[in-house]
TrEMBL record:
Keywords: Signal
Protein's UniProt keywords contain Ion transport: no
Secreted listed as a keyword: no
Protein's UniProt name: Beta-glycosidase
Residues spanning the signal sequence: 1-19
InterPro entries, sorted: Galactose-bd-like_sf, GH, GH2_Domain-Containing
Species this chain originates from: Segatella copri
Length: 891
């Protein structure tokens, strides 16, 4: 703000001072499909062809592009005014008399490759996309009026790979816009030092020095000692496995940023806009942002400086770092130099990566880092974030490592992992959270203790939430949510549109608990230096990945609050280490209490209060240490008369640090199954029981048999259309994309579901406390399940426990169902409760089901005949054909 005021003051003629800059914001002429100069025709027909555009802006924001031909797009939001190619922007400029004999510069804060003409003569061209372009006007351009033309081309000028492999360009988020955004000014030039590494045609330039202001920004990187560093960035350094600032150990609580700006389709350029965005991040405890394959503008750094948030920009690339591709290497090297020289003076800019999930020449990556370190030695560098998907491990030249794993591992092992969830293509059973019985002891010590440098968990989370179709009304800008419309129509066709809001809420509330678990695994790791979530914000591309706890607009989805989220995403977090969350009456509880202390001061002398039901107590903190601090233990015995859910709370007196954990305790008793027929196969004998008015609990396993209408047997397993597998956590990222990847890599695909939806007031849960959504006590039941596809059953039929399917497939899925069948009553449970019952929570669910069936409450409202049931079970459900959706990071 002070800078803006200063510029404004310098521009006031009334003060008698010479203007330092002249804004060119406002109305311009624009001609689509035009390159070169129109100066010779500027007063003739060409002007009739021109349209009006407001700059700063784009072809999209000026509504000058072309309407979409495809309104069925689901891989990303759809541009309503798309355009790709050359666009010639022109206007008259007036150079003041008092600028006579002074070097004049054209400043374009952010744009695509450009060619600049003054009075019909080419000044130069430039292809900088991460930093401003600066053109030094020829000396013969005297004070007075001149015809300025800027040709912007979003279809050429950068290496081909960049268009689909950088969030500076990709249609997945920011879009490949054409225009000029940010400041557009004439300035009194401060420097004429200009170099270029390639021409826009793509070949390596033979010119060593050309008059291309912008090829190397005139700003140089200030040394750290010359800066007045705020405390959050003061003395930022690495010692061993951790980052330090202002003398204290810090933990980077980060988010991934992919340039998601749904209203404009281009990055925000104002400090105010970035203050709002980063301010929301800070509300949710975020102190670090990693910019995935792009670099934000000056305003982002200014806002981050003010708010105390550490930024990691990246080169605009994602893919093969091929040293033989001289054009790509020259472009990326120049972009890196530009980023460092343009933004390197900002206190918030402390780290930098070479791009996202790179593979290719590791020696070339090191050479880049070595070169950049000479330009800005105060920064810390890594190779591409999660380069080689972590399999190559740590290499010389890396100051820190942003990764999902440290080196390779055997399939089915997790000893190198640095995050809790994965796709089924990248880790057995989707990673540790989905695979292991729920607990709060798992961490990544085994991987991180061997590293020796700071490890940042890469793209942590990626837990899907079913979309909120009410969000569609927010899209009032240049991008339209046709993807939402398609998904909504699919759900309506499947007969479940009335459940959309419940799907969103149930999957969302469960995803928040999963994010908590993943984050706390990082905090429990003594030598973990931070995480970069994917994400607190939805990602509208790559098949539409609704993985945020906030929507694409960084606004609440109604599934958590900043206050709740900060329980586990704050500088100081109390932690409870327990081997499990479910117990039986009389069982001992033994838990360790720790604190992740990155708050900048010792907690010695503080009291940590705990409370569990009617019991409470205090633990004294004796440690001076920062980092992961051991506080003490909790031990005791659970006593309950009935199944009970408990909440164990922790808080540090005199601070905002608090946290909570849900526990479940069940009476200890043997299973009582009398009064109910339990069947594995729906054979003729079982059918006779139903016809005579009996009660049947049918639990088909993966090897069970369905009975067709002609009494023949039909095999039903997870490979048929009849069932899907049991997935505990919500599906990772996007079902369609990772199904494609799994199939291409000959790996088992994820079951693709998003948790359960149920009514906690249903009498079947009298012995099994639950919410409407999945929680930790459901683990053994869900892991042993194979939900039944109910597409062929009545449209209005709803299971007692429904499994939420993904947006691509939209099956109606049942985990627990009931019908009146003839004179009898049938309850179907698509989980092997005999196996689940080896855990207290599984046994409690099993008993609760049987108790329900023996009670008067067991009175199904839906009726079906034996013949109809046989027919429905024999019919193949509708088959869903999904097109391939590939990911870049599959080297």
């Amino acid at each position: 703000m002070k800078k803006s005021i200063l510029i404004a003051c310098l521009g006031l003629v009334s003060l008698g001072l010479q203007a330092q800059s002249i804004s060119l914001a406002g109305e311009w002429n624009v001609e689509l499909g035009k390159s070169g100069s129109a100066f010779a025709k500027s007063k003739r027909a060409s002007q009739g062809e021109a349209k009006r555009a407001i700059l700063p802006g784009t072809i999209d924001t000026n509504h000058l592009g072309f309407a979409p031909k495809d309104t069925m797009e689901t891989t990303h939001l759809t541009r309503l005014y798309a355009y790709k190619g050359a666009a010639r922007y022109s206007r008259i400029i007036n150079i003041p008399k008092d600028w006579k004999k002074k070097p004049v510069e054209l400043f374009l804060e952010r744009t695509r490759p450009t060619w600049v003409y003054v009075d019909g003569e080419l000044v130069d061209s430039c292809n900088f996309i991460s930093a401003p372009q600066r053109y030094l006007l020829p000396k013969k351009v005297k004070p007075g009026k001149h015809f300025l033309e800027i040709v912007v081309d979003n279809g050429k000028g950068v290496p081909d790979q960049v268009y689909g492999s950088s969030h500076a360009y990709t249609e997945d988020t920011q879009t490949n816009w054409n225009g000029i955004i940010g400041r557009i000014e004439l300035q009194l030039a401060s420097s004429t030092d200009c170099k270029s590494t390639e021409t826009l045609a793509g070949a390596i330039s033979s010119r060593s020095v050309v008059p291309l202001a912008g090829a190397v920004p005139s700003r140089s990187v200030a040394s750290p000692s010359a800066l007045q560093m705020p405390d959050f960035a003061k003395d930022f350094h690495i010692k061993g496995a951790h980052f330090y600032a202002n003398g204290h150990r810090i933990f980077l609580r980060g988010k991934h940023d992919a340039a998601v700006w749904p209203l404009t389709g281009h990055v925000e350029m104002s400090v105010e806009g970035w203050m709002k965005y980063l301010g929301t991040c800070k509300e949710y405890g975020i102190n670090h942002v990693r910019f995935h394959s792009w670099c934000p503008p000056e305003a982002a750094f200014v806002a981050a400086d003010s708010l105390g948030i550490y930024l990691q920009p990246e080169l605009p690339f994602w893919g093969s770092f091929d040293k033989k591709d001289e054009r790509l290497m020259a472009f990326l090297h120049q972009e890196g130099e530009n980023i460092l020289r343009e933004y390197g003076h900002h206190p918030s800019f402390r780290m930098m990566a070479l791009g996202n999930e790179l593979w290719g020449d590791i020696d070339k990556m090191k050479k880049f880092v070595d070169d950049f370190r000479k330009i800005a030695p105060d920064k810390y560098y890594t190779f591409g974030s999660n380069y080689y998907l972590g399999y190559q491990g740590i290499k010389e030249g890396m100051d820190y490592f942003t990764t999902c794993r440290i080196g390779g591992e055997g399939w089915g092992k997790y000893n190198t992992h640095t995050r809790g969830s994965f796709s089924f293509a990248d880790a057995y059973d989707g990673g540790m959270i989905n695979h292991f019985h729920p607990n709060s002891t798992m961490n990544f010590d085994e991987a991180c203790d061997k590293a020796g440098i700071p490890i940042i968990s890469h793209e942590t989370g990626q837990f899907q939430t079913y979309p909120d179709y009410r969000e569609m009304k927010k899209y009032t800008g240049v991008l339209h949510p046709y993807n939402f419309e398609v998904f909504r129509r699919r759900l309506a066709a499947a007969g479940m549109l009335s459940q959309a809001d419940d799907f969103h809420k149930a999957s969302g509330l469960w995803s928040v608990k999963l994010y908590k678990a993943d984050i706390e695994m990082d905090l429990r790791t003594r030598n973990m230096a931070g995480f970069q979530l994917l994400d607190i914000q939805d990602y509208p591309g790559q098949g539409s990945a609704f993985v945020g706890i906030l929507d694409a607009f960084m606004e609440s989805k109604g599934i958590t609050t900043p206050e709740e989220w900060r329980q586990w995403c704050s500088p100081v977090v109390p932690l409870l280490e327990m081997k499990k969350f479910c117990f039986e009456d009389g069982e001992k509880i033994l838990a360790k209490v720790k604190v992740a202390n990155y708050g900048g001061s010792s907690l010695k002398g503080k009291k940590l209060k705990w409370r569990l039901a009617e019991d409470e107590g205090v633990l004294n903190i004796f440690s001076y240490d920062e980092g992961l601090v051991d506080v003490g233990e909790l031990n005791g015995v659970f006593h309950v008369q009935k199944p009970t859910k408990l909440l164990l709370t922790l808080n540090i007196e005199g601070t905002e640090a608090r946290n909570s954990y849900e526990l479940w305790v069940y009476p200890k008793k043997a299973l009582e199954k009398k009064g109910v027929i339990i069947a594995r196969d729906l054979n003729l004998e079982v059918v006779k029981v139903l016809e005579k008015g009996g009660k049947v609990l049918w639990m088909p396993t993966a090897s069970s048999h369905f009975v067709a209408a002609d009494d023949t047997l039909l095999q039903a397993d997870n490979a048929t259309p009849y069932t899907v597998g049991g997935l505990f956590q919500t599906d990772y990222w996007n079902y369609r994309m990772f199904k494609t990847i799994c199939e291409n890599n000959k790996k088992k695909a994820s079951p693709g579901t998003l948790g359960i939806l149920t009514n906690p007031e249903h009498p079947i849960f009298k012995g099994f406390p639950t919410e409407m959504h999945t929680n930790w006590q459901w683990f053994p039941v869900i892991k042993e399940s194979h939900p039944l596809v109910l597409d062929n059953f009545a449209k209005d039929y709803r299971p007692i426990v429904q499994v939420i399917d993904n947006i691509e497939r939209n099956h109606k899925l049942g985990l627990v169902m009931e019908w009146k069948v003839g004179a009898g009553k049938l309850l179907v449970c698509m989980s092997d409760l005999e196996k689940a019952a080896k855990y207290p929570e599984g046994k409690a669910f099993y008993q609760s089901v049987i108790d329900y069936m023996r009670s008067a409450d067991f009175n199904p409202s839906a009726e079906i005949t034996v013949d109809e049931l046989k027919k429905k079970l024999a019919e193949k459900p509708r088959l869903v054909s999904l097109k391939e959706l590939n990911n870049i990071s599959q080297y």
